[in-house]
Design goal:
This protein has a five-stranded mixed β-sheet. The longest helix is centred in the C-terminal third of the chain and has 34 residues. It starts with a strand and ends with a helix. It has a single domain, classed as Nucleotidyltransferase, domain 5 (2-Layer Sandwich), CATH 3.30.420.10. By secondary structure, it is of the alpha/beta class. Helix 1 packs parallel to helix 2, helix 3 crosses helix 5 and helix 4 crosses helix 5. It is built from five helices and five strands, in the order E-E-E-H-E-H-E-H-H-H. It is 53% helix and 19% strand.
Length: 176
């Protein structure tokens, strides 16, 4: 399964691309989509949208995992991040790519094993999981890889639970 992880933002949107075969992760790419501070918001959003569409075309992900919006103290920031998330979700939806959303707590829990882990711990685990020589840079790219890892682990556990339920149902009905 190819996963495109996204850490949305209006100035910097992080992305991380990996493959997951339910046993190990394979690093494909990571980076950031940057927009200029002086640009109109519409132009910044268009750039994010087009860049995500290009990532989708290049990597053909089976799923897009994105960080859920959480409340910032600055209302303007939360609105801009919500708009950036919106164009990312639109790009995936238009291409019928399944979308999964995760809170920062879920990402930390999945990657580090502790929902209140420090950012540095999450980044170090991303380095270890992907067997990289250093922590992915910039931070938004490392965060996007962590979001992709979270989706890999969580989707694998959902598949296992579904298979267990199907097996139990099969036993109840005598395998019919």
């Amino acid at each position: 399964m190819v996963i495109l992880g996204i850490d949305p933002g209006i100035a910097t949107t992080g992305y991380g691309v990996c493959e997951y075969d339910k046993v190990r992760f394979l690093y494909r790419d990571c980076g950031v989509i940057e927009t200029a501070k002086g640009q109109r918001v519409e132009a910044r959003l268009a750039h994010i949208y087009k860049s995500v569409c290009q990532l989708i075309e290049t990597y053909r992900p089976d799923a897009l995992a994105i960080e859920e919006l959480f409340y910032y103290n600055n209302q303007k920031t939360v609105i801009n991040v919500a708009q950036a998330r919106g164009v990312v979700l639109l790009a995936a939806e238009e291409r019928r790519i399944p979308i999964a959303e995760y809170t920062p707590l879920q990402v930390k829990q999945s990657v580090v094993g502790y929902g209140r882990a420090e950012k540095r711990q999450v980044q170090e685990m991303a380095r270890i999981i992907f067997r990289l020589p250093g922590i992915p840079k910039p931070d938004d790219a490392a965060d996007a890889l962590a979001i992709a890892v979270c989706h890999g682990y969580r989707s694998a556990s959902r598949i296992a639970v579904t298979q267990m339920h199907n097996l139990a149902d099969s036993k109840k009905t005598g395998g019919q």
